[in-house]
Design a protein that fits this description.
The structure is a homotrimer.
Chain A (H helix, E strand, L loop, with lengths): L1 H17 L2 E5 L5 H11 L2 E4 L6 H7 L2 E5 L5 H16 L4 E4 L7 H13 L4 E4 L1 H6 L20 H11 L2 E4 L4 E4 L4 E4 L12 H13 L5 H19 L6 H14 L2 H7 L2 E3 L1
Parallel strand pairs in A: 1-2, 1-3, 3-4, 4-5, 5-6
Antiparallel strand pairs in A: 6-7, 7-8, 8-9
Chain lengths: ~270, ~270, ~270
């Protein structure tokens, strides 16, 4: 659908023009890589987790990302505070429930965060999203043991119940608000051979949300852009190391026009 | 010795087939790079340090890595808990005593961890391993000030006393259980110009231990594989930046057959 | 001015020969990248923040870096202790006031650190340095919203008041002790498209200070070297990902002779 690709292109263009400040409370593994993703995209990352500065940062940032990897108790308090502040000032907030379903601590924290301040978008792999539904799901680790197709029912249910957008990423991506659903295709299997590519998807969703009010379309646009990045990044890559270097180069290089021509989003 | 290289090749093949989940409690500097090493190898990393999830993670992971870099008190409690849980469920556990010998805090913590739950393998540089013996050793920083040859006596002593496997890495690597000793050669000096290459060796040892019960041979196989990676990674590298990119590419690319043909392990 | 470039070349040569141990208390985002910068340069990084080992590390390190990114209360205590210890043993200490001016927590912490133990050098972007002067300054995030020229007055004032060296980095760099001022030119705009390049500048300043007593000249030399690195790193780069790989390669590769010939420092 050309209209959706065009929308994605326009949203990318707005990110590059407005350079939104994205506040991330994220895990230690991906702090460097996701900061680089945001800078390559033209956004401005700010990583901060101290309670003492949550209010000041809420005042200067345009979107919030909460990522539950390498979770610990002291960080949950800041996550809750930041999420609540985002809701108060009507700022978009993306939750990445890393490891939900893998341990009770992560599953409970995801449920607590969602109850405390419903996210604008929840971006996870199939296992993580399924763990948020009433049926729940058990995962072997932080890598998904389910396919995106397995998660369609749970995604619709969770999206409707929470009045939020669910973005499930994998071989293909599903984005749904429980009523409208989009499927994004493209990408490359090597995305699974590099750490933090899901977390990278999350921050790109955050940057797109910061400049576009329709959260469902913003999330679909962001993920279509990132799938295109992965496709392009394979050129000249000889393994996951050089692939990731190319991913950063492509996030920087791909133009709105290329997104309009090549992004693959469809209404399902 | 062809038999040893063949064993290493078979163990690599098992890692790729079984995709073991490796629980890492590691330092902030290398969380990203070692997660990428494990993914490139075909294993599944999980980084977690909260007491609240130590039990759940012990239940889903196939090996444990404890790395003492960027150490602080709250993490030691989780390290002890995870190590004890690994012993209880007979899961292999590798200790990387980063900075032992450099500060009393690190040396004492290494001794405490070892006393509390003896590791399956201890992987360190010569200075770190020497600091664990009864003679002790003082280091200038986290980089070794001793050669692997300096550490042969201490390695044998510590291995016998603790009934553990000692793996000392450097220009060449020594792996010993106090009775059988192996020497691994190959590699490249640029390994010392990149941060976390010792920590990378540690997680590879963890992944090999997860699929092979003979810990001495598993550790020797892992280190022979990594030396071969370093040798290959030099092709096309023009400095430590591009060298590390190649290291990740080669971890992904090197096949069991290449390990069988080119790994250099000998009984000493 | 050839004499200044020659001085920079000689200082780089001393870093490579003496391999100083640099203690960093830095943020989670750049721990890996700045450790790699120091290793590529020929220095030896040690990252440690536990109060229990501050004294032992002060005894074995040749310079201290304190970086306020991803700040939290427990780390401030260690920063204060390390800074005070550095003053006591007359060891150079560089402060990187990341985010000062962006939140009150960061601004107050910067002022507290400076009051408690005046740094040898403060390295920041224009907005951060301006936030340290009596007029103050408000920033939108951690990226500068002011130019180096905006910060000339504040830099001179702060340098004189604190008897310290101020190094403001940006499109060009200003280094001043309030009496002597140097301007460094070169570099590349892609430095702003990679996370932690300011933090990288800070650790390079630390390494140069560890081997050269004239802090103003040491800082100017370090920044002139880093500008040259950026210029060289652009060759063959196709975006911020490959650019950063090249930066690490060039830090390793650039010789004192090349610095003597191409570094651009001038007295202003």
């Amino acid at each position: 659908m050309t209209e959706l690709a065009k929308f994605a292109a326009e949203t990318l263009e707005k990110v590059k023009r407005k350079k939104p400040v994205i506040h991330s409370i994220t895990n230690f593994v991906v702090m460097n890589s996701t900061a680089n993703v945001l800078l390559a995209l033209g956004a401005s990352p700010i990583m901060a987790h101290a309670m003492e500065e949550m209010e000041d940062i809420a005042a200067i940032s345009n979107a919030l990302i909460i990522n539950m990897g390498t979770l610990s108790k002291p960080w949950i308090q800041s996550m809750n505070a930041a999420a609540r502040l985002a809701r108060i000032v009507s700022k978009p907030y993306v939750l990445d429930p890393v490891g939900s379903g893998a341990t009770r601590f992560r599953t409970q924290t995801a449920h607590e965060l969602i109850r405390y301040a419903p996210p604008t978008v929840i971006r996870g792999n199939a296992s993580e999203i399924m763990s948020l539904s009433s049926q729940g799901a058990q995962t072997r680790g932080v890598d998904s043991t389910h396919s995106v197709d397995d998660a369609i029912g749970a995604s619709t249910q969770v999206a409707r119940n929470l009045k939020t957008v669910i973005a499930v990423t994998g071989e293909k991506d599903l984005i749904t608000d429980g009523y409208r659903s989009f499927m994004v295709s493209g990408g490359h299997p090597w995305m699974a051979a590099v750490t933090g590519t899901g977390c990278a998807a999350t921050v790109i969703v955050g940057a797109f949300l910061a400049v576009e009010k329709d959260a469902t379309l913003a999330a679909a646009s962001a993920l279509a852009f990132f799938k295109l990045v992965a496709e392009r990044a394979i050129e000249g890559a000889s393994g996951p190391g050089s692939f990731w270097v190319n991913v950063l180069d492509q996030i920087y290089a791909i133009t709105p026009l290329e997104v309009e021509r090549h992004a693959r989003i469809e209404l399902v």
